[in-house]
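INFO batch 0412 | record 1 of 1 | parsing
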Amino acid sequence: MTDHRDRPEPDACEGCAVAPDRRQFLQRAAAAAAGILLSLGATRQAALAETIRPTVGRLLSTGVSYPIPAQDGAEIDKDNQVILVRWQGSVYAFNLSCPHQNTALRWEADDGRFQCPKHHSKYRPDGTFISGRATRGMDRLGITRQGDHVVVDIDTMYKEDANPAQWKTAVVTL
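INFO prediction complete | emitting tokens
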């Protein structure tokens, strides 16, 4: 049986490289977590276009089902970070963030294009890069058709420069 007198004095670890200060560790961890949450919240804000919700809900673990849009334009699902676009007989699904610095993109309906509010990169409705600081098109998500719905694989993202073949084929033709 040990006695509390056998324990080292609180100052015994004072010279250690890693001080056992639990309170300081927890304060730093909480500050880091708050910073991460704040930055995530800042990238999610932006009035984009019409906000949509998946009507069928999640399929499997990564697929989200949406009704095929009735007309050309863009619809936004902020919860899943998806932009769904119907344009000239095709349906595309994009990541909500600009590929330049992850700012939420905006749909400029009058101009028929997307624009990043931060550095003004511009994109066609099919995600093709037009101009600005970005160096590639919008990131496309995997998409398939199931009847009168499209299923978007929110965990499968194709970057135009890294996956050009998959990027080009991530489209549903109507």
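INFO post-check: The chain has two domains: 13-44, 50-173.
INFO record closed
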